[in-house]
Amino acid sequence: MSQVTQIAQPFNSHIPTESYDAIVVGGGHNGLVCAAYLAKAGKKVLVLESRHILGGAAASDEIFPGFTFSVYSYVVSLFRPHIVRELDLTRHGYQVIPLECTFTPFPDGESMTRCGDPEATRREIARFSPTDAEVAPRFSLAMTQMASFIKHLIDSPAPDLTALRISEVAKLLGLGRRFKALADGGKYVFTKLMTMSAVEFLNLWFESDRLVGPMSVSGIIGTFLGVRSPGTAYVLLHHYMGEIDGAFRSWGFSKGGTGGVSLACARAARSFGADIRTQAAVEKIILRAGKAAGVVVRGGHEIKSKTVISAVDAHQTFFKMIGAQHLDADFVQQLKRFKYRGSSAKVNLAVDRLPDFGCKPGDGPHLRGDITIAPGVEYLEKAYDDAKYGNFSERPFLDIVIPSLTDPTVAPPGKHVISIFVQYAPYHLKEGPEQWPAKREALGDTVVDTLAEYCPDIKDSILHRQVVTPWDLEQDVGLTEGNIFQGELSLEQLGPFRPVSGWSRYQTPIDHLWMCGSCVHPGGGIMGAPGELAAKTLLKSS
Amino acid sequence: MPIPTPFHDRTASLCTSHRWTDWAGYCAVCSYNLPNDSEYYALRHAAGLIDISPLFKYEVTGPDAAAFLSRIMTKNIEDIPGGRAVYCCWCDDFGKIIDDGTVFRLDKDRLRVHTAEPMLAWFKQFKRGFNVTLEDMTAKIAAVAIQGPTSRKILRQITDVDLDALAYYRVLTVQLDKLPVLISRTGYTGDLGYEIWVENAAALPLWDALMSAGKPYLLQPVGLDVLDIARIEAGLMLNGVEFHNAAHCLVELQKSTPFELGLGWTVDLEREPFCGQRALSAEQAAGSRFAFVGLELDWDEQQALYAKHGLPVQFNRGAWRSGVPVYNNDGSRQIGKATSGTWSPIVKKNLALASVETRYAQNGTVLKIEYTVEYRRETVSAVVAPMPFYNPEHKKT
């Protein structure tokens, strides 16, 4: 909190009266990255954030005294290294601590720990399948090749498939050239990746369900799809693209929670002269002769601006702040078809001791990484079955991290925060999404019960429990239908199709209105790329 | 064959990687774990415990103790009040560096010197005329460094002494968990940290007390590999890497002077004679040929070199000290050498420590450094940058 007040002022403490070059609606990490780039280029920029803290879904908050939760998003991987360099974010406090390993406990008392020691990992996998143990590094290499091929896509605006401009054709040709440069085997792998389900794709390599289960979940995070749904293989790749210090597929904790990344972006934006205000909910984007000309903040304050850049999702921007009456019918139709259908929740625990897993008792490196409750494909499919009919999973997939084991600033000494990502928790409950508040604690109980099957004493250790349902994500952070990526990251909603075909280049049908949130290319995750690319595209166009 | 340090029983059981090196004849842990990233992050975000027992330790006592050391060191030790520590170096008659280290003034007549190399014989040659006793304490005293942002909180758990009063480069005799120790606010990581000096017999109880108090504060044992990254981030030099003891050098070119190493601030020229004084005065008047600088390698150029081979940038794990040439801006002439370097996970830059001709030493000067990619020798731009590269506020507060 105190850190936020050093960077941003509450809106009402000093209402801006002047006119701006650009107003960024939403102080999430993308909005802040965008603002930083614009301010660095000399633009007069104002960021308006509706909440009392910055970061949107990449925010840290002291929910329980002494315990700082990464309330929503919880790990960092995809954040673009060149943004760190260009905005000098390390100087502004950007610090990411890599996760050491992946630990998967199984209900039969077994467990698998995959870590940065390749030989130890090989021995561990070989306990279940000696073949898989040898294949695993080959799989990693293939995915690294795919990731370095596809990485170029996320570091530039999506190619426009319809434009016949030289630059667009060159971009497609460049992609073609890189595809051609892939070894033949690589080309096949890529084609399969684009079409198959995560499980089918992994089964091409691995025989053990104990490996395929936990690995396949990367294909479904944040989507309303199952691990056997076609197209999920590609999403798997999204989780191999993250790099920390040159190591692909590495994930990390931001010091002080994921809000630390947002605060670093905010400090950078401030250092370049951007003005940042909290408790400034934008109600309306002002249109003059069909063009964006400013915003109206709750309380009726109008602020003028040459350009408005929305970092909130497409639904909020166009249906809440603009109004369908100002848009073409076809555009409105496409916006309505854009899938949100949030499928995940978060449970954050403050605990007085470390969880003790029956299958691997005591403290150890296995607790310092990613703990996955995804013991097999059938378990995950069953979890999806519940969601298909409007229930949260009776036994959900859980992705658990304990950041307080590597970052002493987020919990009192000897105590810990446990962050649990939960899927499936569908926004569309069969009783209706508005029933979520009544079901919130039941979901919390289910999650704790699921975890207690692996570490029975967890219940006694809980000092505080926070349950964030998809409904809460929508109400509190403005994520439509609680989709953590501002719209599902499924193949047909990526690249040139995100969020609307023909409008993936950050511009919108409303002149002077731009988009820079996760709902535009290259999408969600604490990546910063939409904010950066939007700012760079805007600067180039003006 | 290296021998165990007094902490060996503990370090050996924790060293799961079985990676050891020889440090001055002692077994020293390179890294406790494989990979050792967690040791680095513990050092920078929590705290690390490093066995530094192999440092050479000499006790100088007697009414002339400070005058004696002033005769040897470039710094005037007589000026240093009790309870203070100083970093300094010492030279031969020609002003060429022999070694560097810390000197603690425990009280008026009692000082302790810590060196990288054995120095008994070197120190002894200055004894004539001084009323001092010189004792080699190396094998009698164990030492451990506790470094990192939570180090003070950890020590607070096991002592009643007000550690806030123990300022940067101060020393104090205290009880830690009822064990009498000497504690100094010193270190080799450029962060908040302490070094603790203890009789051998109390080494293991001290280690246990620190580890147990440190657990809630995420203390981890840390090996020398990670320490090497940290000291480069802190811009701290290492004997045998950044410079060589002049007494071991065959030719003049291998020797260096305190001024050339950026240690001019440790040289007090205007005082009673000390070893190397005349040469150092002359050098100060004439100017030095070389300067010690920090370099930050240009990212885009590194990336472009890898891209030529279709590769993403490869990161070396850990620090290097193999030494590479440094050239002027257009690459036409070698003007120095980079002696060690590392990728810094916290600064997010490739860093190097270098010795360059003085006129290339201004901050902001762009030089070229040799950079090998896929067995091809290339160069990338490197800019002279202020050091320390990493300098957290809490280091001195």
Spatial order of strands in the largest sheet of chain B: 10-11-12-9-3-13
CATH fold title of the largest domain in chain A = FAD/NAD(P)-binding domain
CATH class assignment of the largest domain in chain B: Alpha Beta
Please tell me how large the radius of gyration of chain A is: 22 Å
Major sheet details of chain B: 6 strands, mixed
Instruction: Output the CATH class name of the largest domain in chain A.
Output: Alpha Beta
Q: From the coordinates shown, what is the CATH architecture of the largest domain in chain A? A: 3-Layer(bba) Sandwich
Q: How much helicity do the residues of chain A have?
A: 25-40%
Label the structural class of chain B: alpha+beta
Tell me the radius of gyration of chain B: 21 Å
CATH architecture of the largest domain in chain B: 2-Layer Sandwich
The end-to-end distance of chain B, rounded to whole angstroms, is 42 Å
Mean pLDDT value of chain A: 92
Task: Report the count of strand segments of chain B.
Answer: 19
Counting copies of identical and different chains, the oligomeric state is heterodimer
User: Helix share of residues of chain B?
Assistant: 10-25%
List the helices and strands and how they pair.
The complex is a heterodimer of chains A (542) and B (397).
Chain A lengths: L1 H6 L1 E2 L9 E6 L3 H12 L4 E4 L11 E5 L2 E4 L10 H6 L9 E3 L2 E5 L5 E5 L2 H9 L3 H25 L11 H16 L2 H12 L2 H6 L5 H8 L15 H7 L4 E2 L2 E2 L3 E3 L4 H13 L3 E4 L3 E7 L2 E7 L3 E10 L3 H9 L6 H9 L6 E8 L18 E4 L3 H12 L8 E5 L14 E8 L12 H17 L5 H4 E7 L1 H8 L35 E3 L13 H13 L1
Helix pairs in contact in A: 2-11, 2-18, 4-5, 7-10, 9-14
Chain B lengths: L7 H7 L4 E5 L2 E6 L5 H9 L1 E5 L4 E6 L3 H8 L11 E8 L5 E11 L2 E6 L4 H5 L8 E4 L4 E7 L3 H6 L14 E6 L2 E6 L8 E7 L3 H12 L4 E3 L2 H10 L43 H10 L3 E8 L1 H9 L16 E4 L6 E11 L4 E9 L8 E8 L2 E10 L12
Parallel strand pairs in B: 3-13
Antiparallel strand pairs in B: 1-2, 3-9, 4-7, 4-8, 5-6, 6-7, 9-12, 10-11, 11-12, 14-17, 14-19, 15-16, 15-18, 16-17, 18-19
Helix pairs in contact in B: 2-7
